[in-house]
Design a protein that fits this description.
Helix content is 15%, strand content 48%. The chain is built from one helix and six strands. By secondary structure, it is mainly beta. The chain has a six-stranded antiparallel β-sheet, with helices on one face. The protein has one domain.
């Protein structure tokens, strides 16, 4: 399964980043707030304090995960494409 991350915006240190991720034929959009160092508010005490991933369909979207200093919507571990998108962002920003 190939993964391609297209970064649309990243304002750097302590900033927001947003973009698109392709996992095979599936497209996801993301927004992430990340910092230079991890904290107790980050995912796994990492650098991401806010994260939103949505799956884009032709006529609708679906929220895959949402984290705002705590979990609002956890990613579905059984969905390999959703988890690939989530793990790619963790690897890049956390």
């Amino acid at each position: 399964m190939s993964i391609c991350i297209l970064q649309l915006h990243d304002d750097g240190f302590g900033g927001w980043a947003s973009g698109s991720i392709w996992v095979g034929e599936r497209q996801y959009g993301y927004e992430v707030k990340h910092f230079e160092e991890g904290s107790r508010f980050g995912i796994g005490e990492g650098r991401i304090s806010k994260l939103r991933i949505i799956r884009r369909y032709p006529r609708r979207t679906r929220e895959v995960c949402a984290y705002d200093r705590g979990w609002c919507v956890r990613p579905d571990k059984a969905n390999t494409a959703d988890m690939a998108a989530y793990n790619a962002l963790l690897e890049r920003y956390n």
